[in-house]
Write a structure and sequence with these properties.
The structure is a single chain. The protein is of the alpha+beta class. The protein folds into two domains: 96 residues, Orthogonal Bundle (Muramoyl-pentapeptide Carboxypeptidase, domain 1); 143 residues, L,D-transpeptidase catalytic domain-like. 21% of the residues lie in helices and 21% in strands. The strands form three sheets. A six-stranded mixed beta sheet has the order 3-6-5-4-13-7, covered by helices on one side. Strands 8, 9, 10, 11 and 12 form a five-stranded mixed beta sheet that branches. Strands 1-2 form a two-stranded antiparallel ribbon.
Length: 317
């Protein structure tokens, strides 16, 4: 059965314009700093905080945050923060927002109305998805994201021939039983057979009725936060499905929720129909590269196809 699904990955058409805008802002700040030094006779230099070195400006996102206005360089310690949160991560983001020119924010560690407004204005100004949530993309633009690997949970590659608790071969990013990472604290302990997907660690756990970790593995989730947190139920499956443009194959599709972008679920890493080329490598699992659903290594997708039949509960964290 072939079924259209969620959008595939699409290059960001505004990336180049945004990069030019950011670089222009950095240059403007440097020029103003030089003028102030020359006119006032000062010796302090304002350092522009970037997510990379100057030589990497063409391939990574830089920011307009001025380190001289911050108490110290900081990064958020939580996967994402939003209105109502209170933490050192919120304070770090507030410092960055003020340094970026959104001075209505009070640096108090509380994600209040003013912080929410400033975050949404920042996202609008930088042509980001406007939701008031400071996650990877917004935090990267602000210069407070700790890096791609900060929250991802990886495990050693299993020995050749290793299998999970169901007897199926493990992929290079999978583990099982006592070798698997512990379940998150809010993973619904004691609630029976389920699939747990934690967005922050980009990891899936398959739990049986005996609360055993049958298998756990890295995935590549959505760049657009399509995975709605909370409990869901598998309601549809297709052994072979197609992307919305009908140009890529999505093997072993398992659907558990629907959004305005379409059906959302788990499937194997897609491949182009005309060439058979995969849209990403196995080494890139753990990065958010999908345009809609959650991508898995083929062996892990085959496992989940046997494990998660219609009616299986899915918990998204």
């Amino acid at each position: 059965m072939v079924t259209p699904l969620a959008p595939l990955d699409i290059p960001d058409p505004n990336a180049g314009r945004r990069r030019l805008f950011i670089v222009a802002g950095v240059v403007s700040i440097l020029i103003i700093g030089l003028i102030l030094v020359s006119t006032r006779g000062g010796t302090d230099e304002s350092d522009v905080v970037n997510s990379s070195t100057t030589t990497e400006l063409e391939t990574t996102t830089s920011t307009i945050v001025d380190a001289a206005t911050t108490d110290s360089a900081c990064t958020i310690e939580e996967f994402e923060i939003a209105k109502g949160d209170s933490s050192d991560s919120v304070r770090c983001a507030q410092v960055a927002l003020v340094a970026a020119g959104y001075t209505a924010v009070e640096v108090n560690g509380i994600f209040d109305e003013a912080t929410d407004d400033a975050t949404r204005k920042f996202q609008t100004d930088f042509e980001l998805y406007v939701d008031g949530i400071i996650g990877k993309v917004t935090a990267t633009e602000l210069g407070v994201w700790p890096g791609l690997e900060a929250f991802v949970v990886r495990t050693p590659e299993p020995a050749p021939g290793a299998v999970d608790l169901s007897g199926m071969p493990l992929s290079q990013v999978a583990s099982a039983g006592s070798d698997a990472p512990e379940l998150p604290e809010d993973a619904g302990q004691g609630t029976g057979k389920r699939v747990v997907y934690q967005r922050s660690s980009q990891r899936v756990w398959a739990i049986n009725d005996d609360e055993q970790i049958v298998r756990s593995y890295l995935v590549s989730g959505s760049r657009y936060r399509n995975e709605v947190p909370g409990w869901h139920t598998v309601y549809s499956r297709s052994e072979s499905a197609l992307g919305w443009d009908l140009q890529a194959d999505l093997p072993f599709m398992i659907r558990y929720t629907q959004t305005d972008r379409g059906h959302i679920g788990f499937h194997a890493i897609p491949s182009w129909r005309d060439s058979g080329e995969m849209l990403q490598t196995l080494d890139e699992l753990g990065q958010r590269l999908s345009g809609g659903c959650t991508r898995q290594a083929l062996q892990d997708a085959e496992f989940l196809w046997t494990f998660a039949d219609v009616g299986t509960r899915v918990l998204v964290l």
